[in-house]
Amino acid sequence: MNTITLKDVPAAVHRTLKSRAKAHGRSLNKEIITTLEGTLHGARIDAAAVGRHARAVRETLGVYLTQQDLTTLKHAGRR
Q: Is residue 4 a part of any domain in this protein?
């Protein structure tokens, strides 16, 4: 493992990182590494969480679209 020393970290950035580390139950060092990895390699998407959220929104709105509805909407205005 390599070591990096950060200098002149703005106070607001430091506070935010510390707050995020506490919220995620990680050390400040691990939070910084996780943040860098997410930035450099893209954040992982939790497909199951996205699906749950979509279902919750659909239930709230009472909107149920079929695949045919989606295809029609997708192609609307393309003719």
A: no
DSSP letter for each residue of 19-51: HHHHHHT--HHHHHHHHHHHHHH-PPP-HHHHH
pTM, entire model: 0.53
- Comparing C-alpha atoms, which of 27, 23, 43, 25 is closest to residue 35? 43
Give the count of beta carbons closer than 10 Å to the beta carbon of residue 31: 20
How many other CB atoms sit within 10 Å of the CB of residue 2?
A: 3
Distance (Å, whole) CA 52 – CA 63: 15
pLDDT in tens, 17-74: 999 999 999 999 999 999 998 889 886 788 999 999 998 998 898 878 889 998 999 8
If one counts the domains in the chain, the total is 1
Whether residue 15 lies inside any domain: the answer is yes
Domain span at residue 37? 11-75
